[in-house]
Structures are given as C-alpha cells and as structure tokens.
Amino acid sequence: MNLSLLRGLHVCIAAFFLLLAPLGSAHSHAAPAATTVASADLLIVGATEAGWAAAIQAARGGVDSIVIVHDGRWFGGQFTEQALACVDEDKGVGRVGWGVDWHPMKRSFHRSGLFKELMDRIEAFNTQQYGSPMPGRPYHGPSTFRPAEAEAIFREMIAPYIESGQIRVHWNLFPIAADVRGSRLHGVTFAATDGGEGRLSVEAPLTIDASDWGEVIQVAGAGFLCGPDPNSRFGEPSAPDDLSSHPANEMNPITWAMIVAESEGETPIGRPPRFDDRNYPRATHFSRQAFANLQWDQANPGLGAIPHWPDAGNESPRQLSVYTVRRIVDGTTSRDGKTSILLNYMNGQDYPLERLPAPVADALEATGEGASTQNIVTMNREQRQIIFNDAKQHALGVLYHLQNFVDQRAGDKTNSFRRFHLSDEFCTPDRLPPKPYIREGLRLQAMYMMREQDGRNRDGVTKNLAQERFAHVMYPDGLFAWQFHYDFHRTGRTYLKSEGNDGPWIDFHKPNRHTNFMSDRSVFPLRSLIPAELDGLIGSQGNVGFSSIVSAAIRLHDQRIHIGQASGAVAVVALREGIDPRAIPYDRALLEAVRHELCDPNAEGVPLLIWPFRDLDPSHESFVAINRLAALGLLPIGPREVDFAADEPATAAWLGELHDRGFEFEPSAESEVTRGEICLQFWDQVQQQGWTRLAFHRIDDRDADGDGIADRDDPLLFTPNEPIVFEIERPKLGPDSDGIPAAELTRGNGGDLRLIDFRGPGGSPAKGWSTDHGDAFDGERGYGWSRDLRSHHRRRHVYEGPRDTFLFTRDRDLWECKLPNGKYSVTICIGDSGHDQPGQNVIVEGVRFAEDLSTVAGMFAERTKIVEVRDGRLSVELGKPAASSNTAINWVAIEAAE
C-alpha cells in the first residue's frame, strides 16, 4: 500500500475509490441495468470480514473463479462499515500474546492466520501514520484504527486476486431468490439496493453466506433460528425454561457506532428528532439525581456502568472515561494533534430489539400486521430500515447529550464534546457508518449446533478469574481456537410507567440474558458451518450453527475472520474433491485436507491456530506440527496444560506417552531434544503413514459412533459418550457464606434490630428491611454515605433477596447510621452473586471485618463482631484508597449487644 496516500486521510470513503481506482472500478461491477447471468466456482455473499477472508483463503487454495456480491461498497464488516474501530480479540486470563502490557484479559492466544496478517498491516500503517501501532491508547489497550484506513488495507490484501481475475466483486446488490433443485442450492439472484430494476443471477456449485442477516440461507429455504432458545432446545443451563418473558424479537442489541473527530472550535450537532434527555442516564452526572425517582415499568433495570467524565489529568485504567475508553487516535500521537473517538455502547447507546418505541412499532405495523414483534432477522430491508433510522437517532442523542447536557469538570472545556464533529470518512449524508454493529443475527440450523455446556468454564466462576483449561468438549472436527465470555449486552427495554412506549426508555439486563462467565479454551467445529439438510451452501460470518448463548461469545473481530477463513478452506476441499461439505467431518483424509489449507507451513500467508494452546506463536518452527498433532489427538494433553512449552526438553515419560500413540523415536546422541523438535519428527511420520491408521469408522448413518446420541446432537462424533449434563464445581456454601441472613437475625430482639439492604431503586424490600440506595447521609433518615454512591449499585438476577444486590466502591467510602452510644452486634455481608470480587475491605468502628478478602461468584462472606459506638453514629468503612478491586456490601444487621 502507498501509505502516503492515506496519511492524514479524514475524508469520505469516496476518496478511497479514487485512490484505488484500478481495484475498485476495473474489476468491480455496479448494479446491472438488466438481468445478467454469471457463473463461478464459488459464490460468496457478503464482503464482510468473514466473506473477505473466505475469498482470500479460497483464492490461495486454487479456486479459479470466485464471485463476491455485497449490499454495500465496503470490505471489512464490523471493522469498517460497522465502525467497530477498537479490535476485540479472543480473551482469557492468559498473559501470553502481544499487547498484554495494556490488559491481562486481551489476546490469550497469539494472533494467527489472516487475522494476524491483517492486524500486522493495520498496526504497521498506524506506526507510520501516527507513530504507534495503537494510536488511541484506549482503556483496555486494543488496537485501534480509522475505519476508512482499515478498509483500504482490506482492499490492498484482496487486490492481487481481483487484478488477476480470480475474484470478481459486485457491489450494492442483495439476494432476492435462490435456485434450489431438490436438496441442492445452484445459484442466487440479486437485486440492486437502490431499487433499480437490474438483476444479477450467479450460478455456482457452492455458495458461502457471509452476509449480515443470512439472506442466502433465508431465500434458499435452509433451516435457521433467531431469538432466544428455551432450555428444552439444547439443554443449556443459562437458557430460560420458557420464553414467556423473552419475546421472539429479543436479541443482543444493535448499536449505531459514531466516529467523532476533534474540531478547531465548537461544532455541536443539531437536536435529533424525538430527543429526550431521560434516555441517557448512563452518559451524564446530573441525570443520576433524577433517575432514582423515576418509575420504570420493569423492576430494577439499573444504570449499569456509568463512565466518568473525561479528566485530562487522569489516565488511570480505572477511569472509564467516555473520552478515553474507545479513543482510536490520541491527539498527542497524531501529526495534526487531533483526537478521534469511537462512541459505542457504554453511554446507553445500545438499541434493544424488543418492545420497540411506539412510533417505530406504528411504522412497522403500517408495513404489515405483526411486523413490530417480528425478529429483525426475518424483516425485509424496508422494515429493518425503520429500526435503523430510530437507532441512528438514538445514537445521535448520546452525542447531543454529551455536547449539551454534561457539566464540565472545574469549567475545563478542553475535552468538551462540543469541540468534536462526526467524521466525514463514511461519505454518508448523516456522517454515520453505513451499517450498525450487529452482535447477533441468524443462526444456521447446522449439522451440529454448538451449546453452552460444550465450552463454558466448569469452575462456576466468571470471566475475570476463570481457571485456564481446555473445554469439556474438544470437537473432533475443530478448525480454529476461540475463547471469550458469553457477552450479552442489555437486551431489555423499559419505559416510564407514567408515559409508556411513547416516552423515554433505557435498556436493562434481563434474567437469562446477563451472563458473566468465560468459556474454556475451545475449538470451532466444521459441522457448524454446514446446513443440516441443504447441499451446496456453507455458513459464515454469524450465520453458523450455534445457540443464541454461544453466539454471544463468538462474534469478535478475530473470530469472524477465522470463521471466514475456515469456510473458505472447506470450499476449497469440497470443490477440489467434487463432494458436498457435509461429507468432510466423516472422512479423516478430507478433514485433514481442510486443516492443511488452514495450517500448512508452505502455504501462502500465516498458518491458523487450530488447537487453543496459550503459548504457541505461529512463527515457531513447530507451530504446524504441534497444532496438527493436537487436533488429531496424538499428543498427551492434560485438561489444564494450556501451555505446550515447545522449547522445553522432551522427557522420557512424555516420549513414552508419544510411543503409545504410535511415535517411533531413536534418541539423539548429539543434544537434548525439545518437545517441539520431537513434534516435527512425529508429524513427518504421521504424514508418511497416511490416514489409514487414523481413519474414522462410521457405524451408522445417523449415529456414527453408535452411542445412542444422534449425530446432530453428538459433539463427539466418533467417541461414544453420555449426553453432556452441565455440572459446575461451585464452592460449598455454609451459613456464613450463602448470603442469607440467619433466622435469628431476622426475628430481631424486641425492636432493637436494624436490617439494611444495599440496593438500587425499584422493587419492594422484604418485611422488616430498610433500603439504602447509595444516598448521602441524611439526618432525618438516620443513615447514608459520606458521598453520593447512587450509581454504584448492581443487581445480578441470580438469587432472590438482599444477597442479589449490592453497593460497591473501588476507593474508601464511609457509611454511617445514627445509634445511641453503646455496644452492638454487627453482621456485615459482602460478595457478589454474579462476579468474583477479590480484595475486599471492611472496618466497623475500628474493628476489621475483612482485609483483602476475596469471594467467588455466588459466594459471600458474613462476619459478625461486637463493636462500640461512642459518637452517636455507627461508622462502616468500605474499601481502601486507590484500590484495584471492588468491595461489595449486600446487607448489614445491627443489634444491641447484651
């Protein structure tokens, strides 16, 4: 790429098409004027990050004729046209991988495959352009980029295959019909997105659906799912028993991201239609005062995390600032001294898809009865646009709110959002990205549907402190490694009781849609790319076989590229062998041929990580051998041996285990041999022997291993097993750790007992309990805090009663209660029903109740001690100054001591 062309590029995407004219005009095609018929070996619908990766992988694999059809003009999906310009990558507690200096949760795998190739180029460009591979220096430390600049890099990487004629691209077209004969898809017909009369019909023996909403799957009549799954469907422990409170249109919300760039002076936007400041309590300070008094029609929606207002003098990671958390270019590093920021989700910007506002619902109903309760997946493009338009206005309301309603710290206007304007790089009339960020869409009914219990961590702990190990199920047809937490944003929408669906709303976490646990280190099965019944079609992007819960964990930037690369490799082997992809998981030679396309030391590009080792870098000489042997089950790997240690000496015991798996080894007299070197030798032997010894033996067409579990429900195709029942290893809870007040406490002692439940507003306290919402001390009420902590409450929807809610601090805070002087028996309960909380501290009247005490999710610490009040107030000190963790208080019981 000529990086000088992109230097300082802050203009609309049209400039890119001028700069890259040989790529964009000579080899791409506008909507045809009349019906045109084209043919290809492989049709890819969607130039998303997965569609782009599938095309490059297929081209490298030797597919001669590839056609890409896209409903826009951008390569890159969430990287570019959806403007998610801070890279989310596979996460875990592993500290191996580039970039962990910023945050230990990031990059638990070394980058590999096409994702690494792309990110290497993006970060090289950033280094030349901005002097840093991560020019935004955002809170979590991910790589950042300007979407238009990243789009040019996507184009640069695919350009050689377009220029050679191997890949042809058609823009601004979407699927309207499919040629299905019998049980096979033979082609797809497309119409112009601008409503023109032209049609394009593409005939191909194989099609990959990498579109945003699975449009080929829908027009071809393949089975699919959307919306919540009940527990009865896949037996998932976190799925609801029934869907009475989870309507069919409930989904992980969309978000219309915004890129704002620093201006020379003030550049405020106009007031968006139907703007109501009460929609944005998460983006403000003063709305918190009024929020506690608002009555929503869903109990306890909560505010969730409320970011602090920007403070130029505080760059602490704990300062979750609107200004810094998604900053993509920091003015201190950019040559023009200007800052650019991604505004996305954390200020109430998410747009839930259930219980739509009345004007949106009315507009949808005008298109057809029942349209307002229809899932967005099955809507037509006109109906989706109605939702999109409102989601845009809601997002613009966040920026308008920040520019007009947020008080500045100490009168400092330096970081005021009034000095920022919407970036013009998208070349859209409203300066917003062409598409919203899509977290959840269509789910292909595939040969196998990935379930929560297959990969969820089994220690019963959350994303922060999950112990590292491999998943309970390591699919025999795994194609790439993944790990993430099951991340649902707030799927619910609640309105003011007094105004209903015509008034303001906020989003909130619903039960069974607020999960905080990690997956274990997992692999993605080939079967989840293949429709259960229709031939000639491969799923990609988000249109693959997993449950709604699992979809929340497999949607990151790298995962989507890996899915695309895997679907492209499957297409290569299927076309080369003249078979349908559904045959591949049952044939060892075919499966290994796919893995060879993805993980081959002699192939073009960087090999892909198949087995989720934490410490294995693709540049290591034994990377391919270790991956391929592990995927074959030929390496002795314990469930927690997440580091392979390729450069460690090969021990006699380990060599003995390899010998049992077929490795013939003669000790070297020259030097000590490493584990990696042994794997290279073993892998050579395996390849020379061929696949006969390791061939799959299918007992039955519907139950390959004859274990009584049909293949469609069997994660382990050739390993007889019992149905997987999810049983997590939870700590045993006793009366001092269950968070439930003891019976003798709740009975009281002649009226001398005070029971305080620390919780957010909404709902009714249990009989005999008072509530504390985090208000400052009030003499008439008789208790309260030394400062306003009303934004520091949480509810987890895990348990009933006061143990499910808490107030927290990450500093030192003081709570006091007016009491006559004397001695009191005080019981304090700290902990969190949904998260681990390490390092908690509590002191009551100088008596230490907890010092750096840690509780895991669902476990509490109840401590009772005698204290003495000497000044008319019981004083509870919570936390400690500049703490790096929370102290969470659930309830307190105070009783006069005998």
UniProtKB/TrEMBL annotation:
User: Short name of one Pfam family for this protein?
Assistant: FAD_oxidored
Q: Which UniProt keywords apply?
A: 4Fe-4S, Iron, Iron-sulfur, Metal-binding, Oxidoreductase, Signal
Record's keyword annotation contains S-adenosyl-L-methionine: no
Q: Per its UniProt record, what PANTHER family does this chain match?
A: COB--COM HETERODISULFIDE REDUCTASE IRON-SULFUR SUBUNIT A, FERREDOXIN:COB-COM HETERODISULFIDE REDUCTASE SUBUNIT A
Source species, please?
A: Rosistilla carotiformis
- Residues of the signal sequence? 1-30
Iron-sulfur as a keyword of this entry, yes or no, is yes
Tell me the superkingdom of the source.
Bacteria
One GO molecular function term of this record is: metal ion binding
**Protein name as catalogued:** FAD dependent oxidoreductase
SUPFAM superfamilies membership: FAD/NAD(P)-binding domain, Galactose-binding domain-like
Instruction: Give the matching InterPro entries.
Output: FAD/NAD-bd_sf (IPR036188), Galactose-bd-like_sf (IPR008979), HdrA-like (IPR039650)
